[in-house]
Design a protein that fits this description.
alpha/beta, Globin-like, Transcription Regulator spoIIAA, single chain, phosphoprotein, 5-stranded mixed β-sheet, RsbT co-antagonist protein RsbR
Length: 279
C-alpha cells in the first residue's frame, strides 16, 4: 500500500491500529444504536475483521487489501441477508472506522514527522481501501438482494400456475390474478410440460379468478389451447363470465372447437357424466 513512506513507519502505524483494536471496538459500540444480542455479536466479529484489514492495508499492497475486502464484504452481506438487515448497518461500520482509524494515522504520522507528501500518500491509499470496502459491500448486497427477489418471484410464479391432476385423464389449471407477458409464457410452458408429463387427455383452464381478459390475454390463452391440441390434450375453458364472453365475441375469437363452461363445477360435472356414460 505504501509508496514513499518507509516500511518501518507503515509497520509501526499498522501495529498501533492493532494495539487499539479493542479500544476501537468499544468506541464503535458507544457510537452505534442498540441491536439485538445476536446482531451485536455478529457486529463485533465484523469490527474485528475490518480493523485487521485496515491495519494490514497500511503496509500491504492495494491488490492484497482489495482481495481481503472482497471476502469480508461477501461474508458481511451473507449476514445482512440472513438476518434481513439493511445495507446501511455495514456501511456505517465502514464509514465510522474510516474516521476512527484515520485519526490514528494522522496522530502517528505527526509523531513520526512525516512530510506532507508522505502523509498524503498514506491517507490517500487508506481512503482507496475504504472506498473499495463500500464498493464491495454495495455490489455484493445488490447481487444477493436481487438473486433473492428473483428466486422468490420465480417460486411465486411457479405456484401461481398449478396443474392439478384429478383423474388419470383430467387435469385442472386454475388461474388467479392478472396475466402479464411473463406469466403468460409460464402458462404456456407449464400447461405443455404438465400435460405431457402427467399423460393428460383433457385440461380444464379455469379463468374464474382472472379479472380482465383483454386482447393480449385472450390471444395467449388460445395459443396455449392450440399448443395443447398439438400434443393431444383437449382443452376446456371454464369460468367464462358474461363480460369475458362479450370480450371474446368483440375480439372475433372462434370458440366453436373448444368446450366452454361458465364454471369449473359445470366442467367437472360434464366429465363425471361422461365417465358414467362410458362405464
Amino acid at each position: 500500500m505504501i509508496n514513499q513512506v518507509d516500511f518501518k513507519y507503515a509497520k509501526a502505524i499498522s501495529d498501533k491500529i492493532m494495539d487499539k483494536k479493542q479500544e476501537l471496538i468499544v468506541q464503535k459500540n458507544n457510537l452505534s444504536s442498540n441491536q439485538p444480542t445476536n446482531i451485536e455479536s455478529q457486529l463485533h466479529i465484523w469490527r474485528e475483521d475490518i480493523i485487521e484489514i485496515y491495519a494490514k492495508s497500511i503496509n500491504s499492497d492495494l491488490d492484497t487489501s482489495y482481495q481481503l475486502l472482497k471476502e469480508w464484504g461477501a461474508e458481511a452481506v451473507d449476514t445482512l441477508v440472513n438476518f434481513n438487515l439493511p445495507l446501511e448497518i455495514a456501511l456505517d461500520e465502514v464509514r465510522d472506522y474510516r474516521n476512527l482509524i484515520g485519526q490514528i494515522i494522522k496522530d502517528e504520522a505527526s509523531g513520526f514527522n512525516l512530510t506532507f507528501d508522505q502523509f498524503y500518500n498514506l491517507i490517500s491509499d487508506f481512503d482507496a481501501v475504504v472506498d473499495r470496502a463500500v464498493h464491495w459491500l454495495s455490489i455484493s448486497y445488490s447481487r444477493r438482494f436481487y438473486t433473492r427477489i428473483n428466486a422468490a418471484e420465480a417460486t411465486a410464479l411457479e405456484l401461481s400456475i398449478p396443474v392439478i391432476k384429478i383423474s388419470n385423464q383430467i387435469g385442472v389449471l386454475p388461474l388467479i390474478g392478472d396475466i402479464d407477458t411473463q406469466r403468460a409464457q409460464e402458462l404456456m410452458d407449464k400447461a405443455l410440460s404438465k400435460g405431457s408429463d402427467l399423460g393428460l387427455e383433457y385440461m380444464v383452464i379455469d379463468l374464474s379468478g382472472v379479472p380482465i381478459i383483454d386482447t393480449m390475454v385472450a390471444d395467449r390463452i388460445f395459443k396455449v389451447v392450440e399448443a395443447l391440441s398439438l400434443i393431444g390434450v383437449k382443452t376446456i375453458l371454464s369460468g367464462i363470465r358474461p363480460e369475458i364472453a362479450q370480450t371474446m365475441t368483440h375480439l372475433g375469437i372462434n370458440t366453436s372447437n373448444i368446450t366452454v363452461t361458465s364454471s369449473l363445477h359445470i366442467a367437472l360435472e360434464q366429465f363425471l357424466n361422461m365417465k358414467i356414460q362410458m362405464a
